[in-house]
Design brief:
This is Bro-N domain-containing protein. It comes from Enhygromyxa salina. The protein is an alpha+beta fold and about 300 residues long. The protein has 3 domains: about 25-160; about 180-220; about 230-300, no CATH class. Helices cover about 50% and strands about 15% of the residues. The chain has helices at about 10-15, 50-55, 60-70, 85-100, 105-110, 120-130, 140-155, 165-200, 205-220, 235-240, 250-260, 290-300; strands spanning about 25-30, 35-40, 45-50, 80-85, 115-120, 270-275, 280-285. Helix 8 (about 165-200) runs antiparallel to helix 9. The longest helix has about 35 residues, at about 165-200. The radius of gyration is 26 Å and the shape is elongated. It starts with 9 loop residues before the first helix and ends in a 7-residue tail after the last helix.
Length: about 300
């Protein structure tokens, strides 16, 4: 009476559909002052093409992808030298990186796919991008760093069982990797502070707060007692919004821009805070009691009432 069609059995087909191997993060490291994240693709170590291209001086992941697909196509094989993960796998990778406190580059945060280099692909990229094989280069130093430190570290991390000596070696490896990550983040943040201090365009208190955060990263602790104190009555747009019915922080921000308060050196101050639910520092602006009074007067003129 009824015809049987293939699409009537989607659940049966779902079990036979091919799936991509899992993609994750082995550890977050650095190389000569640059981020160098070691990922895991189906149990194999791999690296983000964007970071490798930056170290090799190739310009970006798109240029490296072009060379793999055209210039080196006879030797570069997908699955052996490189893989491209889709949006679903990339979302999982981004979530893993975010949980580890990594601030994603815009190119990675907005991408719909990502190119990953496996170990043979990394060696191929270094070999083909070296202008003079007899001379030391960043690529050859990178390859030596990977062979001598990264690959053994990955192997140690993946051996949680075994003798007490092996477990101790794995623990030491994890601590060394974490120390290298903190050192790289500290150096990067201190360098930013020095650059901002030299330009004299940012409030000294903001730079001081950044330096304290850098020290917190280096020590893996909190130094809240050393952070700049905020006088009583200074409020953020979120705090002002909470004092009024139906007002959002965005609405308060619009009024602040209309009144020109953000540029005021007297009534506006930039401070460093931790984002809600994340261990990440962001710069927020707070406003003096006089500025808050002007903001609330503008809100009253627009019909918003303060919560008493």
């Amino acid at each position: 009476m009824f015809e049987d069609h293939d699409y009537d059995h989607p659940a049966e087909q779902a079990w036979t559909e091919p799936t991509r191997p899992p993609t994750g993060v082995s550890f977050v490291g650095s190389f000569e002052g640059r981020a160098f994240i070691t990922c895991d693709f189906d149990g194999k170590p791999c690296w983000l093409a964007d970071e490798v291209a930056a170290i090799l001086g190739l310009g970006g992941a798109s240029e490296l992808a072009r060379r793999l697909a055209i210039d080196w196509s006879e030797d570069a094989q997908e699955g052996k030298h490189w893989v491209r993960i889709g949006e679903l796998e990339l979302d999982e990778l981004r979530a893993d990186l975010s949980e580890r406190g990594v601030i994603l580059a815009a190119s990675l945060a907005e991408a719909r796919s990502a190119l990953l280099l496996l170990e043979p692909g990394l060696a191929l990229a270094v070999e083909r991008s070296s202008t003079d094989p007899s001379q030391p280069s960043a690529g050859r130093r990178l390859l030596r760093h990977v062979c001598e430190r990264v690959i053994p570290a990955v192997g140690a991390i993946r051996r949680p069982s075994g003798s007490a000596l092996e477990r101790e070696a794995a623990s030491i490896t994890r601590e060394r990797i974490e120390l290298e990550r903190r050192r790289w983040e500290y150096d990067a943040l201190e360098g930013l502070c020095d650059a901002l201090d030299g330009r004299a365009e940012i409030d000294a208190e903001v730079i001081w707060a950044y330096r304290i955060v850098a020290a917190e990263i280096a020590l893996s602790g909190e130094l809240w007692q050393l952070k700049p104190t905020i006088e009583h009555g200074w409020l953020s747009p979120t705090q002002v919004a909470r004092r009024h019915l139906g007002v959002t922080p965005q609405r308060v921000g619009q009024i602040i821009s209309l009144l020109g308060l953000r540029e005021s050196k007297v009534h506006s101050k930039a401070v460093l805070n931790k984002t809600v639910g994340r261990d990440r520092a962001v710069v927020t602006h707070i406003y003096s009691p006089a500025a808050v009074g002007l903001i609330e007067r503008e809100l009253r003129s627009r019909g918003y009432r303060r919560v008493e």
